[in-house]
Amino acid sequence: MSRSAPSALPVFISSLSKHYGAFCAVDTVSVDIAAGEFLTLLGPSGSGKTTLLMMLAGFARPSSGSVRLGDQEVVHLPPHKRNIGMVFQNYALFPHMSVGENIAYPLKLRGVGRMECGERVGKVLDLVQLGGYQDRRITQLSGGQRQRIALARAIVFEPRILLMDEPLSALDKQLRETMQIEIRRLHDRLGMTTISVTHDQREALTMSDRVAVFSRGRLAQVAAPKDLYERPVSRFIADFIGESSFLPVQKVSGGLAYGGQLLHLADAADADLPEPMLMLRPERLDVVYAGQAARDENTNMFNGTVRSVVFQGESLLFEVGLDQGDVVQVRQSNRSQCTENLPSKGERVDLLLNRFDTRIVRGE
Ligand code: ATP
């Protein structure tokens, strides 16, 4: 985790709920966010991410539960008394004001004098790499520049916490990826506690210390990006973060089996999960001609036939129909040494999975 700024505050969210009539948009969510942490709320559309963020900002009133910033309970405070910076998807800049006036706006609200305003606006413009842009009109800026100005306006008054709602979704892919790295760098420099909402899993993995995955108003898992990818607790999470195929496995004496064959597992405790499924990440499998690989206790082998091979530049994506009827995706990286000998459509193959790459997830 990055170094926190001296003024950064932890956020404690406890049993927070929001009902709209009989509908529960956020359902008893509890999570503690450390001072200086970058947490991303990730989830499908309508899962409650924005509603949670709005309750933190003070724009939506919780039905029940508590939000503490440091040791202060804030659920009854209006937004302007929470000292929170906010960046929205559509920038929400004032088009009739110059860049400088936009950024100075929150300072003026707080009674900061003209001289100091000018100084702080200059500094924050340098931070977002738009030094000298004070007098430009908002309409003269590109999408990426507008988003940087929105960010500058959100941080100019040194808020204790920064909230961002889909901050990059209006930008094209390339700019979005550049801005992800830039925002993360800025966060590391300033060290403020940051909570961001996205439905883009790559953005969440790239920017965050931890990711909180939402499903129907509830927190399905909160974990560091690597743990979320490597150890998803359920099929829903594994499906949402990265690509995956799933095989139904049976509990047998001695562990778990697929197609009557005992699996060699990384973690024997996995066999105790309810409704277990074997999660297969495409990049963790190897595809070889049938009968070419030897069986051993560190390798799981599945027999099947290649249904299709798609060339995707840096890799080839295989779809293999297993003899049991399940279909599995396999990704092989495009290295000339290896790819020349890869099987093609219709050929019989074995899929190899190292026992240390086996992951069992709850099948829901
Ligand atoms: P998206 O990624 O599409 O923005 P989200 O995860 O941010 O989705 P929310 O905007 O928090 O989802 O909405 C959660 C649920 O609450 C949705 O089903 C939405 O229709 C509902 N909802 C949100 N605001 C209201 C409201 N004012 N009245 C009634 N229902 C609402």
Automatic annotation (TrEMBL):
InterPro entries tied to this protein: AAA+_ATPase, ABC_SmlMolc_Importer, ABC_transporter-like_ATP-bd, ABC_transporter-like_CS, Mo/tungstate-bd_C_term_dom, P-loop_NTPase, PotA-like, Transp-assoc_OB_typ2
Enzyme Commission code(s) on record: 7.6.2.11
Reactions the enzyme catalyzes: ATP + H2O + polyamine-[polyamine-binding protein]Side 1 = ADP + phosphate + polyamineSide 2 + [polyamine-binding protein]Side 1
Gene3D superfamilies in the record: P-loop containing nucleotide triphosphate hydrolases (3.40.50.300)
Top-level taxonomic group: Bacteria
One of the record's GO cellular component terms: ATP-binding cassette (ABC) transporter complex
Enzyme class: translocase
Family: Belongs to the ABC transporter superfamily. Spermidine/putrescine importer (TC 3.A.1.11.1) family.
Protein's name in the database: Spermidine/putrescine import ATP-binding protein PotA
Natural source organism: Metarhizobium album
